[in-house]
Specification:
Layout (H helix, E strand, L loop, with lengths): L1 E6 L3 H12 L4 E7 L2 H10 L4 E4 L8 H10 L5 E6 L3 H11 L3 E4 L4 H12 L7 H12 L12 H11 L4 H8 L3 H15 L4 H10 L4
Parallel strand pairs: 1-2, 1-3, 3-4, 4-5
């Protein structure tokens, strides 16, 4: 039996994934968490084979969670299931230690197959992601400016472009407004932009929102 823990801040999303996995006789969801704190508590009390993880969590992001698990030498297999497009976040997630990446729009069969694959110690990528990896190997593309952003800077960029105020971002990420302002300033500098409007246009043009 493959034991799974779900970590997503939206209860409806967790329910949908749980119901999907419930149809598989060899998979059991043993716990659910809405953020990093709840996840850490769960991992102390329960053993599992696969963590199904969202990227956009309050406080520490899913990418932060991946980095922490990697630093701790955890053998837990992580499948990232996110609303963000594969071409923007899949590589970051895999480099951070994820065993697979799926978009939340994937069908039920894909999610079940992905959980089974990563539970076996293998990597799971969609055919589209595999093609993208091959293309990058054969004809390396010029790196987009936003690829040089840190995980937290990219998260700040996406949230600003989605219309969130700095105070809202600070509250969601459990940071001070001053810290978020520093991230914003770094993003603007690295992308060669001057204000939030230009930042939003950049995010839209590059498929980040």
């Amino acid at each position: 039996m493959i034991k799974v823990i779900l970590c997503d801040d939206h209860a409806l999303i967790r329910r949908g994934i749980r119901d999907t996995l419930a149809d598989a006789a060899d998979i059991e969801v043993v716990g659910e968490a809405a953020d990093y704190g709840e996840l850490r508590a769960l991992l102390r009390d329960k053993s599992c084979d696969v963590l199904v993880l969202d990227i956009n969590l309050p406080g520490r992001s899913g990418l932060d969670v991946l980095h922490v698990l990697k630093e701790e030498g955890s053998t837990l297999k992580v499948l990232v299931v996110s609303m963000y497009p594969e071409d923007q976040y899949a590589m970051r997630a895999l480099k951070a230690g994820a065993s697979g990446y799926l978009n939340k729009g994937s069908d039920a069969a894909q999610i079940v197959a992905a959980v089974r694959t990563v539970a076996q110690g293998k990597k799971y990528v969609t055919p589209e992601m595999a093609q993208m990896l091959v293309d990058n190997l054969t004809t390396p593309a010029q790196e987009d400016l936003h690829q040089k952003l840190s995980d937290r800077e990219l998260q700040t960029l996406v949230m600003i472009a989605s219309g969130k105020r700095l105070s809202d971002i600070a509250e969601q990420l459990l940071l001070s407004p001053k810290t978020v302002s520093v991230y914003r300033a770094r993003v603007l500098e690295k992308l060669g932009l001057t204000n939030n409007s230009e930042l939003t246009v950049y995010a839209i043009r590059n498929g980040l929102v």
